[in-house]
Amino acid sequence: MDRPRALVPRHYVAIGGRGPEDVVADARGRVLTGVEDGRILRIDGFTDPAATRIEVLAETGGRPLGLELLPDDALLVCDAERGLLRVGLGDGVVRVLADSLAGERLRFCSNVVALPDGSVCFTVSSRRYPLDQWIGDLVEHTATGRLLRLAPGSDTPEVLLEGLRFANGLAVGGDGSFLVVAETGAYRLTRYWLTGPDAGRSEPFAKDLPGMPDNLWRAGPDGPILVALAGPRVPPLDLLRRSAPAVRRTAARVAVRAPFRPTGTIGVLAVDDHGNVVQHLARRRSGFRMVTAVCQAAGHLVLGSLWERGVAVCEAPALK
Question: Which one, 76, 142, 186, 217, has the greatest CB density within 10 A?
Answer without folding.
Answer: 217
